[in-house]
Amino acid sequence: MGRPALQEEEKRVVQVNIRLTEAENKKVNSFAEASGISPANWIRQKAFTGRFPMVKLSPLNAAVYRELHMIGINLNQAVKQLHAGKLSPAYLNILTMLLKTLQDVLKALMQ
After folding, report:
1. Could you name the domain of life of the organism this protein comes from (predicted)?
2. I need a surface site. Which of 11, 17, 80, 93 has the fewest CB within 10 A?
3. Count of domains in the chain?
């Protein structure tokens, strides 16, 4: 199925050209890439809303976040086993430190 046809008033027919320095161009491109949109759409959204488009999590950070989330699930299961008496209490300090480290890494990724 193809893309739906735009109404005549929705078509973008006017072209506006601007000149940027190399530094400005790099900045716009990096902002657009972080937002997951084209530089033209990033500039359009910034110009008409006055706000920066929302930055999305990069695919790498999203993959790291998912992996850390799965590690956290495993740690929580181990702590549950420990509290149920199925694991030696010697693991308590290790698991507690790992959970704290995991939480710190997740906070750093989200900022």
Report:
1. Bacteria
2. 17
3. 2
DSSP 16-36: ------HHHHHHHHHHHHHHT
Nearest to 93 by CA among 79, 111, 104: 79
Please report which confidence band the pLDDT of residue 60 belongs to, taking 50, 70 and 90 as the band edges: low
Give me the domain span that covers residue 78.
59-110
Please write the tens of the pLDDT for every residue from 30-41: 888 878 889 999
Question: For residue 20, what are the contacts with CB-CB under 8 A and spacing of at least 6?
Answer: 28
DSSP string, 46-93: HHHHSSPPPPPPPHHHHHHHHHHHHHHHHHHHHHHHHHTTSS-GGGHH
**64 and 25 housed in the same domain:** no
Q: How far apart are CA 69 and CA 102, in angstroms?
A: 9
- Look at residue 73 and tell me whether its pLDDT is greater than 80: yes
